[in-house]
Amino acid sequence: MVERTETGRRARLAAGTARPVGAITRGTTGINRLRRSDRWLVHDRLVRERLTAATDPLVVDLGYGASPVTTLELAARLRRVRPDVAVVGLEIDPERVVPGRDGVRFARGGFELAGLRPTLVRAFNVLRQYPESAVPGAWELLRDGLSPDGLLVDGTCDELGRRCAWVLLDRTGPRSLTLAWDPFTVDRPSDLAERLPKILIHRNIPGERIHTLLTAADRAWAHAASLAPYGPRVRWRAAAAMLRDNGFPLADPRRRLRDNVMTVPWAAVAPL
Fold first, then answer.
1. Which CATH class is domain 20-182+249-268?
2. If 0-12 CB within 10 Å is exposed, 13-18 middle and 19+ buried, where does residue 42 land?
3. At the top level of its lineage, which domain of life is listed (predicted)?
4. Which residues are CB-contacts of 236 (< 8 A; sequence separation ≥ 6)?
5. How many other C-beta atoms lie within 10 A of the C-beta of residue 8?
6. Tens digits of per-residue pLDDT, 81-103?
7. Domain residue spans in the chain?
8. pLDDT tens digits for range 224-267
9. Are 62 and 96 in contact (CB under 8 A)?
């Protein structure tokens, strides 16, 4: 009976006859606002593996806002990994749902993902507008809607996309936190604190792991000041290497990055 009820519920969601889960948010967006997370998705080993291995890769951009531009940009960039990737933009506000274009479909939906079973979900600047207490439930609902090997990106950024942070999750829970920023407009790593995902933004206080990481990153950044004449990218590479030497488990990228990026396992920043 339970299985039959769940099957019926998902059928109603897919048909668009069930009510979306969530609340209408501000919907602000802009051209290239999410370019840093897009670049990371295209080059991240795990994301590429999951998209490449999927029989019919489906990506959902949840809460694309008042304009679908960032969804269209995401589709164009992910097609470098899988030319046949299907992308669907979901919005809970029916007035924001636009006709499909450039091979991307748009529909009404919320945290229930309109009954879809995507390989990847991007939810940027959505949960930031909810109370912190709503995050675990929203994560659970989103993870339940993923394909068996699906991934979820819950992130936030500033209005111009110069400061970004996101959590990568799979069906079992959070896997990592990534901070990415414009090397030329951010003075120090802890400036990203104001853009931490909702689950962490109130945890940047002494005693919490995220505070320990950001404090150490600022210290390493200051220590690498002698490299400033060579540019902020060179300086950050030295600071990141220092963090690794001091026991912080930063991922070591295998290529030169346009952005300054710091990725750590979730266990290194999880709230106490």
1. alpha beta
2. middle
3. Bacteria
4. 183, 221, 224, 260
5. 11
6. 999 999 999 999 999 999 999 99
7. 20-182+249-268
8. 999 999 999 999 999 999 999 999 999 998 788 899 999 999 99
9. no
